[in-house]
Specification:
Blueprint lengths: L1 E11 L8 E14 L5 E6 L12 H10 L8 E6 L9 H16 L6 H12 L2 H9 L2 E4 L5 E4 L8 E5 L6 H6 L7 H19 L5 H4 L6 H7 L1 H12 L4 E3 L6 E3 L14 E4 L9 E4 L1
Parallel strand pairs: 3-4
Antiparallel strand pairs: 1-2, 1-11, 2-4, 2-5, 5-6, 7-9, 7-10, 8-9
The protein binds L-homoserine.
């Protein structure tokens, strides 16, 4: 049996929707497991030289966890990674979703979006990344596991600004956040998150206002001053911008009237387009 899973990159939080909002991007990691090939692990693309080949990687670990007491057949694993690692684009989520879907497929269980999502959200702990990776589009995930997928407005043109030499592990980026927030900051985020739903789905002209946040972005940008500088330059140019996931990448939405300021060296710009569907799985 040969199973190929393609999982999209995701941008979580989207400004005020901390731990809730996510957007799927048309940039996919592709994972193939093959029970007829000699067992082994082969990485290609982003981070290929730094990923382990002893089975301790996140895809293999997820497959074992999803299988639980059931035994998986021996298989070869081949991944083509296009999503930059540890940059706030949901690369871990792609691994967990691919691992969960592949394991369910190998075990003969239905790898439905909902089932894969339940496993991925539980294993990775970030439903705001797992939701768009599974369902595509713009997603709202509650801490209790309820998800709604909405169609993002087709005029949105996401551009991801990836700092080539800066990484920010999610754990570190979370430790920088205060445990308690002021009520006026909580109210600020509730209002802007509500506005962001309208902006992402119906009226992109609201985005520049809607992406403001007081729960996480400032604390995270303080950890990466070179990113903060670019964030401020993009915002000063009137382009809607937010920190992508836990950072350090930025997600911006230029349009015909508001262009991104000139790119600095050390930054990679990706224009992946919106992805309206979630992961895909082929079983042969
Ligand atoms: N919502 C999570 C965070 C996403 O911001 O920490 C992690 O990718």
């Amino acid at each position: 049996m040969r199973i190929t899973v393609r999982v999209p990159a995701t941008s979580a939080n989207l400004g005020p929707g901390f731990d809730c909002f996510g957007l799927a991007l048309e940039l996919c990691n592709e994972v193939t497991v093959d029970t007829d090939a000699a067992p082994g692990i082969l990485w290609e693309g982003e981070g290929a030289s730094e990923l382990p080949v002893d089975g301790s990687d996140l895809i293999s670990a997820t497959m074992r966890q999803v299988a639980g007491d059931r035994e998986l057949p021996a298989f070869s694993l081949h991944a083509i990674d296009r999503v930059p690692l540890a940059r706030g684009l949901g690369s871990s989520s792609t691994a967990v979703v691919a691992g969960a879907a592949a394991a369910l497929g190998l075990l003969g269980d239905d790898p439905s979006m909902q089932r894969v999502f339940m496993h991925a959200a539980a294993i990775e702990g970030h439903p705001d990344n797992a939701a768009p990776a599974c369902f595509g589009g713009f997603t709202i995930a509650t801490p209790g596991g309820l998800v709604r997928r909405l169609d993002p407005h087709p005029d949105l043109r996401p551009v991801v600004l990836v700092p080539e030499h800066t990484r920010l592990p999610t754990d570190e980026a979370r430790q920088a956040l205060p445990d308690v927030v002021a009520r006026n900051d909580a109210v600020f985020n509730v209002a802007h998150a509500a506005l962001a739903v309208e902006a992402f789905t119906r009226d992109p002209s609201l985005l520049a206002d809607a992406l403001h946040d007081r729960l996480h972005q400032d604390a995270r940008l303080q950890l990466v001053p070179e990113v903060r500088e670019v964030f401020e330059a993009v915002r000063a140019a009137g382009v809607p911008v937010c920190v992508s996931g836990a950072g350090p990448s930025l997600l911006a939405f230029p349009d015909d009237e508001r262009e991104l300021p000139e790119t600095r060296s050390g930054w990679r710009l990706l224009s992946p387009g919106l992805r309206t569907s979630g992961f895909e799985i082929d079983v042969e």
